[in-house]
Design a protein that fits this description.
This protein is of the alpha/beta class. 62% of the residues lie in helices and 7% in strands. The chain is elongated, with a radius of gyration of 34 Å.
Length: 768
């Protein structure tokens, strides 16, 4: 008896398919991309007794029409060999629409298990199902589930086990589309049978006959079926002559007619339907006047939640990487391979660690977004924003990709495929990089707590709002110039509110955060090594430093000793010898007998003054050491590039350090933080020196910090984003225009803010 099974999970978007997949497979999942396209694929494994099941989560689609990349992928998967079962997930609250895909899957004659999910919501709507009658109609077993509840899929597991035990006995649905069209299907099917295509022997010829009659692009591209084209066109002409309607439209109409009859016979409604809680909530959340303020308040709360919860975890990660650096520094002698030792400690650990430290921010932001998505509020947000977005030339359907842009721009651009208007899709793609993706979050998380400690959530909220307004303004400009045309009507179905499950939220959060960690372990690791090399070579010293640093440090040391002696003499402590002064300077304690001879109050005052004097001395020495190393850095590749561009970037408040970091961020936005960490680790004087935030607040003003965030928000996106723009729009020209335009906008915006802030003296003072 077979013990390993390959099962496909198919269904419409938002039918609860992902919740079922997560509940069945848990953490045993693999996420990737289908070869040649950018549609995400998921597969996972789970067991029922001795049966091992490979579950493949297909992209959510409404049909197998092959009119989108997702539908083409599903078409290829369901026509592939060695499929044991299809679990077709149905939204119980909208069965007629959900079952449209089922009618197409049924033609494959692959065993199916129909899973009527969200059955609790259907009951609340007063819907009652005649399950035995539906099972007979589709020739497949049916199970009702509530995947969002704990234990809600146990019935699915039980029925799945039964179904796998009797796959050979599964029924074959006899779907009829009417005498005339059935005759046309049979004529084409006979032609396909005569071709004897070995590659598709496992697929019923009737399935391909229907697809060819519908002019399905995926079916028509199959080389082996090209010779059937005359028969197909003959039957299509016959149907046109008799019914005066296209075959593809006729097929869709017949499917819906069949489903209407099936649902009328098997689904009943109770006489009294109470108003759902969702409708009552929507009276407030989608209110004409309250909807937008509530939406903004919810987004503000999400950012506050992100910062508040992530701060303790960030501190632990900082401590962990600090201990790692100290541990490696203690074990690895400075005399053994000093270059590689420095590259590991100051390059790799400082660079990658400087990015991973912001993982808690990413985790909690994705967690908040997952709550909004799984609860059903994100659809309301799109509904609320539709009117506003039309003012800027977009439609509400563009809102979902824009929100996904808060996570990562690349998948957000892929999500624009749901926008049917080519103009609206192109505009949405072009403005998406202006949204604050998670790659920019480490930059905000580095600078905001350092320069705006009392206003972290408001400043973060402001940055996101600036990105949104910039995107909408850019959309309005493009719809008035490059992409002129009337907007399309946007119709959206609002799903009922649901309580997200903790497991689903955690898996959702982890899937997206795993991409961030993967980037830290690949792109950012490679970038950190490359940047360290650029920050180190060529190792050339200037013929003459701007200052005699060694002499100035010696003078400071001598002055510090004289100051200590003067202080001791000034307080005139009786019985205080030169040796005792030396002991105090070296912070050694005096004996009990010596303390009896000295005025303790005066001694305490002296020690305090000596400590203050020592602090000033240490700061002055550190500044000289940093200046010397910065001067050495100017001769490296990074330094030369930064120095060359510094005059151009100085009007927006950037020195060559920040300029270099900005260039490095082209690889990935997070590398901005990594590069600053590497550059400033060069200036550290000992193991107990201040961290990167403390160094930055001694070097830059709040105005400069805000301009850094503004420039990183509006400037050229990462190379991966430019590549996906070229791919989706099939134009290098558009990708280049995007990069040039964004850099220009970023520079002008930062220039205005920095110059205006300097003129008005806003945020121009160092905090430390």
């Amino acid at each position: 008896m077979k013990q390993t099974f390959r099962v496909l999970l198919a269904g419409n978007p938002n039918c609860g398919k992902t919740s079922i997949f997560n509940a069945l497979t848990g953490t045993r999942q693999h996420v990737g991309n289908y070869p040649g396209v950018t549609v995400e694929s998921k597969s996972g494994r789970f067991s029922i007794g001795e049966r091992e099941i490979e579950l493949i989560d297909l992209p959510g689609v409404y049909s197998l029409s092959s009119s989108s990349p997702e539908e083409e992928i599903v078409f290829k998967e369901v026509t592939a060999p060695r499929i044991d079962l299809i679990i077709n997930v149905i939204d119980s609250t909208i069965p007629q629409r959900s079952l449209y895909l089922t009618t197409q899957l049924a033609e494959l004659h692959i065993p199916m298990l129909l899973t009527f999910n969200m059955s609790d919501d259907a009951r609340k709507k007063g819907m009652k199902y005649n399950i035995p009658k539906l099972e007979k109609y589709f020739g497949s077993p049916i199970v009702q589930t509530v995947a969002s509840q704990y234990g809600g899929i146990q019935t699915l597991l039980n029925r799945l086990n039964e179904t796998l035990s009797s796959l050979e006995d599964h029924g074959v649905p006899m779907l009829s589309y009417g005498a005339d069209i059935d005759d046309a299907i049979n004529a084409v099917a006979e032609k396909i049978d005569s071709l004897n295509v070995e590659k598709f022997r496992h697929v019923p010829s009737r399935f391909f006959a229907i697809k060819l009659l519908e002019h399905d692009t995926a079916a028509m591209r199959i080389e082996e079926f090209k010779s059937a084209a005359p028969v197909v066109e003959e039957q299509i002409k016959h149907l046109w002559d008799k019914h005066a309607i296209n075959a593809d439209t006729f097929m869709a109409d017949r499917r819906y007619a069949m489903l209407a009859g099936a649902c009328r016979d098997t689904i009943s409604m109770t006489q009294e339907r109470r108003r759902e809680i969702s409708d009552k909530i929507d009276l407030v959340l989608t209110n004409r006047f309250l909807g937008l303020p509530i939406f903004l308040l919810i987004m503000y709360a999400a950012f506050w939640f992100t910062f508040t919860c992530s701060e303790p975890l960030m501190e632990w990660i900082e401590i962990l990487f600090g201990c790692l650096k100290e541990g490696i520094g203690a074990v690895w002698s400075p005399d053994k391979l000093p270059f590689f030792r420095s590259m590991v400690i100051d390059g790799i650990i400082s660079g990658v660690g400087g990015v991973i430290v912001f993982l808690p921010n990413i985790l909690f932001l994705f967690f908040a977004i997952a709550i909004l998505e799984d609860s059903g509020y994100m659809s309301r947000a799109a509904f609320i924003m539709d009117g506003i977005m039309r003012t800027f030339g977009l439609q509400g359907r563009s809102f979902v990709p824009l929100v996904l842009g808060f996570g990562c721009t690349v998948p957000a651009i892929m999500a624009t495929r749901t926008i049917e208007s080519d103009r609206d899709r192109a505009v949405t793609i072009m403005v998406l990089p202006l949204m604050s993706c998670s790659a920019r979050l480490p930059i905000y998380a580095l600078l905001i707590p350092a320069f705006f400690p009392k206003y972290q959530a408001p400043v973060m909220f402001l940055i996101y709002i600036v990105g949104i307004l910039a995107a909408l303004t850019a959309a309005r400009v493009m719809k008035s110039t490059l992409f002129k045309g009337d907007g399309e009507v946007y119709l959206m179905e609002l799903p009922p509110y649901r309580m997200p499950t903790l497991k689903s939220l955690c898996l959702h959060m982890w899937d997206r955060s795993k991409m961030y960690l993967h980037k830290a372990g690949t792109v950012i690791l490679a970038a950190s090594i490359l940047l360290y090399i650029c920050n180190t070579f060529p190792e050339k010293k200037p013929e003459q430093f701007r200052k005699d640093y060694a002499a100035e440090i010696a003078n400071l040391q001598k002055a510090n000793t004289l100051d200590a002696e003067k202080l001791a003499a000034a307080v005139r402590l009786p019985g205080l010898t030169t040796e005792q002064i030396t002991q105090i300077i070296e912070t050694k304690k005096l004996s009990a007998d010596q303390l009896k001879e000295i005025d303790r109050n005066k001694l305490s005052a002296l020690q305090q003054k000596l400590v203050q004097s020592a602090e000033k001395y240490n700061i002055a020495v550190a500044e000289l050491e940093n200046a010397r190393k910065a001067e050495l850095m100017e001769w490296t590749i990074s330094g030369r590039v930064g120095r060359f561009l510094e005059p151009f970037m100085r009007p927006i408040g950037f020195d060559w350090y920040v300029t270099t970091a900005t260039i490095a961020a082209l690889a990935a936005k997070e590398v901005f933080v990594s590069q600053l960490g590497i550059l400033y680790s060069q200036g550290e004087t000992d193991e107990n020196s201040q961290n990167l935030r403390n160094i930055l607040i001694k070097t830059y003003t709040p105005l400069q910090a805000f301009c850094m965030m503004l420039f990183c928000l509006l400037s050229i996106p990462c190379l991966a984003t430019l590549a996906i723009i070229r791919r989706e729009l099939n134009s290098w020209k558009m990708a280049i225009i995007e990069g040039v335009a964004m850099f220009s906008v970023a520079y002008i915006a930062a220039f205005i803010v920095y110059q205006a802030g300097t003129l008005l003296n806003i945020g121009t003072k160092l905090l430390s």
